[in-house]
Amino acid sequence: MKEIDPYLLQSLRAVLKNQKVQKQKSAVPYTDVHFSGNAEDILLGKKLIQEGKVATLLLAGGQGTRLGFDKPKGFFPISVVKHKSLFQLAYEKAEAAGEGLPLAIMTAPESEQLVREYFKKNEWHAEFFSQNTLPLLDHEGNPFLEAEDSYCYGPDGNGAALHLLVTSGIFEKWQARGVEYIQCILIDNPLADPFDPEWIGFHARTNAEVVVKAIKNDRPEEKVGVLAKENGNLCVVEYSELPSDPKNYPYANLSLLSFSASFVKTASEQYEKMPLHLAHKAAKYLNREGETVVAKEPNAWKFERFIFDVLPFANQIETLVYPREECFAPLKRESDIPKVKLALQEKDRRIFQQFFQKKPPPHPFELDPKFGFPTSELVEKWKSREPVFNEGYLSARV
Description:
- This protein has about 400 residues and is an alpha/beta fold.
- The chain is about 30% helix and about 20% strand.
- The longest helix is centred in the last third of the chain and has 20 residues, at about 335-355.
């Protein structure tokens, strides 16, 4: 059995001792934002995407436990009619934005092979790497066994994503292709569009290192982080670490981030400076009978880094605020499923009305993702045709 590095263990214990819940007392509300709706940014973004200057990083390390699902979250069937998985929705939207655009997926270590095989079976092209892990500690700050020959470990969050993108060699390949911007989205937010042209156009126009995509914090009861300013700089504060009422913070963080390629390199080199956050989890452990069981109540402290903690490494950050219904429908737990399906349906209804200039049908339906990324050829092809649904699905093929 591989022993845990004593220096690592010492640093984890220090985190546990000093910040079981760390309140960021100096964080104040952040209000220096811009709002979406700029047609010129959309045109510029489309041009950059077509020129191959944009890549997407999809963070997909989550498991489906809280959904009552026994596979990684990306496999969860969520679309309204076709019951497409989260992975399929994300991939088809990426392909709709432009065939063969660079896409990388970060998985949990135990699910990387399963995800690779799923993509290979469906002839979907992407590149893959997996998260790191850290040992879990019990309430006394000690590591514990989950089996006779192994300590209990857990994924260390998505904060290492840019570092791992670089060390995996994928980033170097992208740079050789001419990639200048990398959009980062989460698998459990099916309204998050890869290759969002306005986001990229705004990023290019402002010449920022990072662009944060945010929404108004109009549901302060939600367990989401907020945008704040600490020591004069933009940061994200998790809901569990807020020093005051969430209603005081007008903009919510979605962990949707667009990075310049030069900043990715900078962030990777400073990765170890990122803070560790604590989560109280019910974990597997070895009981007195020598059996591996899952605790019914939280029994372990998990240590995670978050992607938004790269923000302090940037000198120029801009924030672009979108309507919630355009970009945020989080799928975290079983109770979210009907709300997410409704959000997907409502977005398809808006796309239908905009594309066909007519009222959408009243029955449940689903659109081919290509309608959400319309090319001039697609618009011309459908200009004089009547949309006909096949069992509630409208294909972009004529």
